[in-house]
Design a protein that fits this description.
The complex is a heterodimer of chains A (about 350) and B (about 300).
Chain A lengths: L1 E12 L2 E12 L3 E5 L6 H9 L6 E6 L2 E2 L10 E4 L11 H7 L8 H14 L15 H13 L5 E5 L7 H18 L2 E6 L2 H7 L2 E6 L2 E6 L1 H6 L4 H6 L6 E7 L4 E3 L4 E2 L9 E7 L5 E2 L3 E13 L3 E8 L2 E8 L9 E6 L5 E4 L8
Parallel strand pairs in A: 3-8, 3-9, 6-7, 7-8
Antiparallel strand pairs in A: 1-2, 1-4, 4-5, 9-10, 11-12, 11-14, 12-13, 14-20, 15-19, 16-17, 16-19, 17-18
Helix pairs in contact in A: 2-4
Chain B lengths: L11 H9 L8 H28 L19 H8 L1 H34 L5 H10 L5 H15 L5 H5 L6 H12 L3 H9 L4 H12 L1 H16 L3 H6 L8 H6 L9 H36 L1
Helix pairs in contact in B: 2-14, 3-14, 4-8, 4-11, 5-8, 8-11, 9-10, 11-14
The chains are: A alpha+beta (about 350), B mainly alpha (about 300).
InterPro entries (chain A): AAA+_ATPase, ABC_transporter-like_ATP-bd, ABC_transporter-like_CS, ABC_transpr_MalK-like, ABC_transpr_MalK/UgpC-like, Mo/tungstate-bd_C_term_dom, NA-bd_OB-fold, P-loop_NTPase
Subcellular location (chain A): Cell inner membrane
Main location (chain A): membrane
């Protein structure tokens, strides 16, 4: 059963259309992450689901009913904001209780529910504190608590972790994921951090300029990117793109090397050949490009090397113990099965 | 002015600099000049108050004597003023008017300011500019239409007549609008999702977040109405309806102005303003600083 569905959703501010037909079906209990560069329309989509932004055309369906014309409070959703938006003049307990205002539970049931949520979030000792006596992570937990008490059909998160420092972010990421496994509500989570997207999502929705680029599991979007944008957006460091051509015989890289691959094209086709730094090694596999090492970034277990090649700068992973010297000429190779080929004109993956 | 201990850290530097300065020896000419200016300013501000108290302790024959310390100090004036029934009524009138006007301003100014700040509707900018432009009309010009209005509605010589022009002010609306700008929309949207209606959001979420501004506005409005003179003078006729400033100005007989009594009444009438100020001062320090930052 679809728990949340977006059908041909568009949004225009004045005459500028910023979302151009978003379609998405979310199953009950699924953890969906919207990811994309700044300004691509993630927040706008989320806010339309929440009812904070009017729908220009299309439908938002929650449960089994179209909610386009319902107030936020009638939509059975809860939202966690980037800057927490917990009320500074209320104690933690009151903040959490606020989420229950429109519920029909009795006073005792509400009390029990608040304690239960506080227990799950490990906040019981902090219930009487005011928000300004809490750390950033604790504040975010209060915001999550306020959303959780309602047990909504859909949780909406808009970049809830981006105000936290790196370590706390990793920790909260894990906590939210565990929380999801425990409570099982549907979650729609917006971020522009692809690592967050990869680590938390059941399925990732990648957006750009108001269009969905691809919807898929983390493995799918990583290994079978639908287009060059997705390929470069997901994964760090980003995928190398080398110009090449595809013809009846196989793939020919700009630098000259010809490869036997599964791709063929009857008429010659200009393509971009994508290869992830992880899949490029100094050594084994078919040679792809060669050039001089210009920069080395030691990461411990491995070293990133930036290689100046005829096809432009290429990043590859080399051994952490015995990386090539600066200025050394290296040949980078890859398993042809790990290459990605995109139409140079449209950017779409070539099948 | 003492600084309350919980003044936010952000505004410390300026006040600290001012307070810390007298400790050491003056470092340079610039500093000496600055001190002298501050000193002169301080004297200028405190002198009228000192003279007010000094005069209130003098006998009538000594009033035109400029000495600060009365030759024979007396509290006779205080007993006279406090036992005089008129002053009591003026005090009550002033209090009723200032308190009601203050409460109304806090409610109406913030309601309108909030609406202008957080809602998008056609004509919003126009309404705002219209409200602001009334700031440019001096009270002296407005009293005539106010008077004609009061006359035709039968409001002359009533509390309502004294209060109605000030129940909502353009300045207060502007101040509150600016402060509501600093309330992030996320709070309002979170409350909307939590199921509050718009009025509840204003009252339960937005208002508590602008308490400093409300405190500042409360002091401004209270003081303004407590000391208002021109309009109450014009709209009231009977002695029973006078406010303190109007009443005091008429103390004495046709021949002689009883300065010692006026000063006594003025001294007594500063007490409520002191109380209001003491209650709200820790907020107003913050409020003024924040208003300054908002520009
Ligand atoms: N109230 C508005 N009026 C006009 N344009 C808007 C409004 N809100 C958003 N936009 C535009 O809509 C587009 C999408 O904005 P949105 O906030 O959804 O981006 P986002 O993906 O959430 O970006 P970010 O990662 O920076 O939060 C942007 O181009 C933005 O300029
Ligand atoms: Mg956003």
């Amino acid at each position: 059963m679809a728990n949340l569905a977006l059908r041909n959703l568009t949004k225009a501010f004045g005459n500028t259309e910023v979302l151009h037909g978003i379609n998405l079906e979310v199953a009950d209990g699924e953890f969906i992450v919207f990811v994309g560069p700044s300004g691509c329309g993630k927040s706008t989509t989320l806010r339309m689901i929440a009812g904070l932004e009017e729908v220009t055309s299309g439908e938002v369906i929650i449960g089994d009913k179209a909610v386009n014309n319902l107030e936020p409070k009638e939509r059975d959703i809860a939202m966690v904001f980037q800057n927490y938006a917990i009320y500074p003049h209320m104690s933690v307990k009151k903040n959490i209780a606020f989420g229950l205002r429109s519920s029909k539970l009795s006073k005792e049931e509400k009390e029990a529910r608040i304690l239960e949520v506080a227990g799950i979030l490990d906040m019981v000792p902090l219930l009487d504190r005011k928000p300004n006596a809490l750390s950033g992570g604790q504040r975010q937990r209060v915001a999550i608590g306020r959303a959780m008490v309602r047990d909504p059909a859909v949780f909406l998160f808009d970049e809830p972790l981006s105000n936290l420092d790196a370590q706390l972010r990793t920790q909260m990421r894990l906590e939210i994921k565990k929380l999801h496994q425990r409570v099982g509500n549907t979650i729609v989570f917006v971020t522009h951090d692809q690592v967050e997207a990869m680590t938390m999502a059941d399925r990732i929705v990648i957006m750009k300029d108001g269009h969905i680029q691809q919807i898929g599991t983390p493995a799918e979007v990583y290994h079978q990117p639908a287009n060059a944008f997705v390929a470069q957006f997901i994964g760090a460091p980003s995928m190398n793109m080398l110009p090449g051509t595809l013809n009846g015989k196989g793939l020919k890289l700009g630098a000259g090397s010809s490869l036997k691959t599964k791709w063929k094209s009857d008429s010659a086709l200009d393509v971009m050949v994508g290869v992830r730094p992880d899949d490029l090694t100094v050594g084994k596999g078919d040679p792809i490009v060669s050039g001089k090492v210009t920069v080395r970034e030691p990461l411990g277990p491995e070293t990133l090397i930036y290689v100046d090649t005829p096809s432009g700068e290429v990043i590859a992973k080399a051994s952490g113990r015995t990386p090539p010297e600066l200025g050394e000429k290296v040949v980078l190779s890859a398993d042809p099965a790990n290459l990605h080929v995109f139409d140079a004109k449209t950017g779409m993956a070539v099948q | 002015m003492t600084i309350a201990p919980d003044v936010p850290a952000g505004i410390r530097p300026t006040t600290d600099a001012a307070l810390a300065a007298p400790k050491g020896k003056p470092k340079n000419l610039g500093q000496i000049i600055r001190w002298l200016l501050l000193f002169a300013g301080g004297i200028l501000m405190i002198m009228p108050i000192v003279y007010m108290i000094s005069t209130s302790l003098k006998w009538p024959h000594e009033v035109y004597n400029v000495n600060l310390i009365p030759e024979e100090p007396t509290i006779e004036n205080y007993t006279y003023v406090l036992e005089d029934g008129r002053f009591y009524w003026w005090f009550v009138n002033s209090l009723i008017i200032a308190v009601i006007t203050t409460i109304c301003n806090l409610l109406f100014d913030s309601l309108v300011g909030y609406t202008l700040c957080k809602f998008r509707f056609p004509g919003r900018q126009l309404v705002f500019i219209a409200i602001l432009s009334t700031l440019m009309i001096p009270t002296e010009m407005l009293v005539i239409p106010w008077y004609l209005m009061s006359q035709s509605f039968g409001w002359l010589d009533t509390y309502w007549g004294i209060m109605f022009p000030g129940l909502m002010t353009a300045f207060g609306t502007f101040l509150m609008k600016q402060f509501f700008e600093s309330v992030p929309d996320d709070f309002i949207e979170a409350a909307r999702i939590d199921g509050l209606n718009e009025l509840e959001i204003w009252w339960k979420v937005a208002m508590p977040l602008v308490k400093p501004a409300l405190a500042a506005l409360a002091i401004f409005v209270f003081l303004g109405n407590w000391t208002a003179f021109l309009w109450p003078l014009i709209v009231t006729n009977s002695v029973d309806m006078y406010t303190i400033p109007v009443g005091l100005s008429g103390f004495g007989d046709e021949v002689d102005v009883a300065w010692e009594l006026i000063m006594t009444g003025a001294a007594i009438s500063t007490i409520p303003t002191l109380i209001v100020f003491l209650i709200f001062q820790r907020f107003i320090i913050r409020g003024v600083v924040m208003a300054g930052l908002k520009g």
